Amino acid sequence: MSLRDGRDDAGAGTGDGPRSEAAAERVAAADTVSPADSLLADARAWLEQDPDDATRAELSVLLAEVAAGDPDAVSELAARFGSRLTFGTAGLRGELGAGPNRMNRVLVAQAAAGLAAFLTSREAEPSILIGYDARTNSDVFARDTAELMAGAGVRAVLLPRALPTPVLAFGVRHLGASAGVMVTASHNPPRDNGYKVYLGGVDDGAQIVSPTDAEIQSEILRVAGGDTRDLPRSDGYEVAGDEVVDEYIRRTAALSPAPTVPLTVVYTALHGVGWQTARRVFTAAGFGEPIVVAQQIEPDAAFPTVSFPNPEEPGALDLSFATAAEAGAELILANDPDADRLAVAVPDVAGRWRRLSGNEVGLLLGWRAAERATAAGPDGAGTLACSLVSSPVLGRIAEAHGLGFAETLTGFKWISRAPSLRFGFEEALGYLVDPEKVRDKDGISAAVDLLALAAELKAAGRSVDDRLREAAERFGAYASSQVSLRVSDLAEIPRLMTKLRSAVPDAIGGVPVVRVDDFTDGFDHFPASDLLRFWLDGGSRVILRPSGTEPKLKAYIDAASTDGTAEERMSAAAATVDALERGVRELLA
Asked: Which residues contact 495 (CB under 8 A, 6 or more apart)?
């Protein structure tokens, strides 16, 4: 099956009509009313076109409370209708609810129609693959998208059920689609959902980047000036069979040789959609089925056992630790809810469990990729890539193996575009071990590669920690940490960044600051970004940036040591990071 082969007849409709004219009249009249009245008018117009009973009821109650003079309701109305979600990290992401600043069926309809207009302006016969996870309304948003794409003349294919994000990203390339949409909020809070966009063709199945995001946003805003009930829909979309899933599983299972020794492994899907696909991959690769965290293995949009479905968050892996201790396991693997990220935990000598950092897993998998490239001889030339907030150790590994190294802005929309890419990672548990198959982070492929490494180490009488010590001996010891400041008022983040730009600290944690790189207007080969990088005495660094998906200001701390034994190097690097972390917390207090 190829999405370049034929398409169904599109539905009829132009989007013009009495409701579109009424919407235009509302826009024309907007300048003559007060801001409060304008918000009310927008909310009432939204209510009229909302097809969702739940959000209609929610907005009706809110409007009644506003009419009664409830100040909290007035503030809530402003929060929902005073702005709108815009394309950020590869698409839309936000809390479920009524209004343009929330995720809902009206906003998704506007986004789908805007994306369709963008695609039809670029190609005579565009196609799109649509996937979804198991979050609240993911399937509804995906079907709405399929109907609107088909209605706009785009050949639309819907994946057959809730599946991991990497399957959708693979499918866009495998089927030669013009674009892909994945309805997911990945590891965000339970009440969030999102709309992630990929492009085929010259973009090779990667997530959208600037200026494409702005071009799509412009089309969405044009659609938002009308009424979504006027948008043409069609049920002439296709539902894919299992061919895409089967091929993803076959190619992922073939990544690494079958293990020569058995491993006792615990796996959790964190209430997401990873398990059914991961189980088939693990079995096909020869690892057998892992022991599962039963309470978290099936999809559940309420995420009942975790306060935050992100394997990086404290407590998220507690049930995995308990299951592993009971089973006498040797390794824990955890996918986030859409399975594009991977967390790994190993036992220490006392039997306690330690989650490896994203930088540690990136080191292990990046080194493995570099060794494969070296073994391939001239055919193995290529590039290792990571985001600039990830550990510098990958650059050292690339240098030692004669490979290219690329440092990018945060996000796989940038990492996946590195030239001649062989491996990419970001510290937020994202790894791309098979760029020929998928151009996005893939937590299932990464799990297979990590399983193979652990099995090889066990066969040689060694452990994952032994491998990390070997890395410290060969490349130097690299330590890292993160500090996240979560805010309730988003305006606090730009205030803090402005303060740090205007009053640069002389030292952080007692370590002198020797240089500051401000990315506001771009820096070196990087485009403009709200990011500050502090270089400190001894070569350590602190990077500050707002999160692209959460209301957080994030600080990334890195230090290295090449003096002494592996243990002495690791201790020295960790001590520097500890001092810098204390300093960053004081700086952001």
From this structure: none
Q: How much is the pTM?
A: 0.92
- Residue 438 CA: distances (Å) to CA of 160, 198, 270, 372, 432: 19, 11, 23, 18, 8
pLDDT tens per residue, range 69-85: 999 999 999 999 999 99
pLDDT digit string (tens) for 273-315? 999 999 999 999 999 999 999 999 999 999 999 989 999 999 9
- Do 106 and 99 form a contact (C-beta atoms < 8 A)? no
Return d(Cα 440, Cα 197) in angstroms, integer.
11
Residues across the chain: 589
Instruction: State the number of CA atoms in the 13 A half-sphere of 387 facing the CB.
Output: 23
End-to-end CA distance of the chain: 56
pLDDT single digits (tens) 127-170: 999 999 999 999 999 999 999 999 999 999 999 999 999 999 99
H or E stretch at 422? strand 421-426
Give the strand pairing for 265-268 and 291-292.
parallel
From CA 518, how far away is CA 511, in angstroms rounded? 19
CATH class of the domain comprising 18-29+84-241: alpha beta
CATH topology of domain 476-588: TATA-Binding Protein (3.30.310)
Q: Helix, strand or coil for residue 316?
A: coil
Burial code of 6-35, b = ≥16 C-beta within 10 A, e = fewer?
A: ebeebbeeebeeebbeebeebeeeeeeeee
Contact status, residue 199 vs residue 118, Cβ threshold 8 Å:
no
The CA-based angle 104-108-109, given to 5 degrees, is: 120
Segment 321-379, tens digit of pLDDT: 999 999 999 999 999 999 999 999 999 888 899 999 999 999 999 999 999 999 999 88
Q: With residue 90 as reference, give the H or E element that holds it.
A: none
**280 closest CA partner among 306, 308, 253, 310:** 253
Is it true that domain 263-475 has CATH number 3.40.120.10?
A: yes
The C-alpha atoms of residue 81 and residue 79 are separated, in whole angstroms, by: 6
CA-to-CA separations, 5 to 1, 8, 116, 155, 539, in angstroms, rounded:
8, 10, 18, 10, 54
Question: Which of 127, 186, 445, 540 is an active site residue?
Answer: 186
Q: How many helices (H) and strands (E) does the chain have?
A: 18, 22
Fold: same for 18-29+84-241 and 263-475: yes
Is residue 471 within 8 Å of 393, Cβ to Cβ? yes
Non-local CB neighbours of 428 within 8 Å, separated by 6+ positions: 312, 341, 358
Boundaries of every domain in the chain: 18-29+84-241, 263-475, 476-588
Active site residue 186: yes
